[in-house]
Amino acid sequence: MNAERRPMLAANWKMHKSVPESLAFVRMWSRRVAEGAALPDPTQVELVLCPTLPALWPVAGLLDAMGVAVGAQNVDVGTEGAVTGGVSGHLLAEALATHVIVGHSERRRLFAESDAVVAAKAAAAFSAGLTPIVCVGESSAERQAGETQGVVARQLTAVLNAVPEGDGRLVVAYEPLWAIGTGQGAVPADANQVAGWCRALIAAAWGPAANRVRVLYGGSVTGDNILGFWHADELDGALVGGASLELESWLAMVRTVAPAPSA
Ligand code: PGA
Fold it and tell me: Distance from first CA to last CA of the chain, Å, rounded?
């Protein structure tokens, strides 16, 4: 955590929840807030919810009223045209998304997204005015081979070479593959070290603008362990999958990171 950067707590719902289920979650969240559940001041903590594509537009209004941003989970390159199934950044923005997750390891693995594709998608997000949350991270085998730094550097360098230099909207999410959905999150000190490597790499390319880039941690974050990541020097928040799907567990995380109201 660093006072120069606004921390972010982002929920990645992946391919979960229908439109009615998504709406029900957000309506219930809104009701709980009206009843007194903690909701951080958006100027102090940025909350982002990334539902499925069909649910973006339906939930956006309700979330906006709560000061919560809406993110997509993927963006296609290009702006318009004969791309069956494609969804451009412009279309996402029109559906009221302000953020987009790019290069999640599930997309790299299941959709064969290469570093070059991920970099092009990050650039497409910027062009559409979206804030990209770019995921990087090593596999278990790479970690065991001592390749973590090299893998993360390769993935991040591809992105830095493609996006506007010094654009502090960039958000990086360090998500080691072995920690995603396994219940075996990284140790905060290890995640902090990798985040430091990421920032050093960005600083080498961008200079002081690197201080504006937020680096999140993702991988089996829950209400029980979020604080360790939240308070790590080089980390600026968390990207949460499984634990964001259930309202009570999401509320527990939001409550944990919400600064105490000033007297
Ligand atoms: P998880 O997923 O919190 O369920 O481990 C995180 C992610 O994939 O972004």
Answer: 22
Check if 180 has its Cβ closer than 6 Å to any atom of ligand 1. yes
Nearest CA to ligand 1 atom 2: 241
Per-residue pLDDT tens over the stretch 209-222: 999 999 999 999 99
Side-chain-side CA neighbours of 52 within 13 Å: the count stands at 12
Q: Is residue 3 assigned to a domain?
A: no
Looking at the structure of the chain, the number of domains it has is 1
Instruction: Point out the ligand 1 atom lying closest to the alpha carbon of residue 218.
Output: 6
Domain range for 86 is: 8-257
Burial class (CB in 10 A: 0-12, 13-18, 19+), 31: exposed
**Residue bearing the CA closest to ligand 1, atom 9:** 241
Q: What CATH number is given to the structural domain containing 29?
A: 3.20.20.70
Q: Is residue 195 part of a domain?
A: yes
Residue 262 domain flag: no
Q: Which atom of ligand 1 is nearest to the CA of 221?
A: 3
In this predicted model, what pLDDT tens digit does every residue of 176-201 receive, in sequence order? 999 999 999 999 999 999 999 999 99
pTM over 0.85? The answer is: yes
* Ligand 1 pocket, residue 239 CB under 6 Å: yes
pLDDT tens, position by position, 90-126: 999 999 999 999 999 999 999 999 999 999 999 999 9
